[in-house]
Amino acid sequence: MDVSLQRDDRLVQPWRTAALVAGGVAAVELIVLVVVGGALITKPSAGAAVRHSARTAVAASRHVAKTHRAAPRTVLVARGKVTVLVLNGNGRRGAAAETARRVSGRGYRIGGVGNAPRSDFTRSLVMYRAGFEAEGRRLARDLGIGIVGPLDGLVNSQLHGAQTVVVVGA
User: Fold this and answer.
1) For position 47, what pLDDT does the model report?
2) What pTM was computed for the model?
3) Domain ranges of the chain
4) What is the distance between the alpha carbons of residues 36 and 30, in angstroms, rounded to a whole number?
């Protein structure tokens, strides 16, 4: 018994086309699901990063300082009445103490010297309490520091009475 099995291309062609179309639709759906899932997964982590940076003692950007306008004052507080907290943000031993000597040499009072919560700051920065923007900018000019912004993430008890903070970067 010899049975010849011949292929009828007229029957195979519609199935092949249908399989290719279904595969294409499935691929597009997969891409959409991956994009939507990725957006949903990264959104909560971004919120956690923002909350974490708000809790750290120094949450200023390494490259761009936020701008903040305090109520304008007509008279600057004298350097001898401005207290500065100096924090080591680069991990190099003695960097904060060395900077504190420079700050003191310019006539400012030192409120404390310590380590920043991170030691990976690539640039130094100056931050100021509300109402002391002009003094913060003057301190930054005196030290040759280009990044100046409002204090963010520090509570008054951590400031040791300081109106400004210098974070020493690399």
Assistant:
1) 46
2) 0.56
3) 1-55, 79-168
4) 10
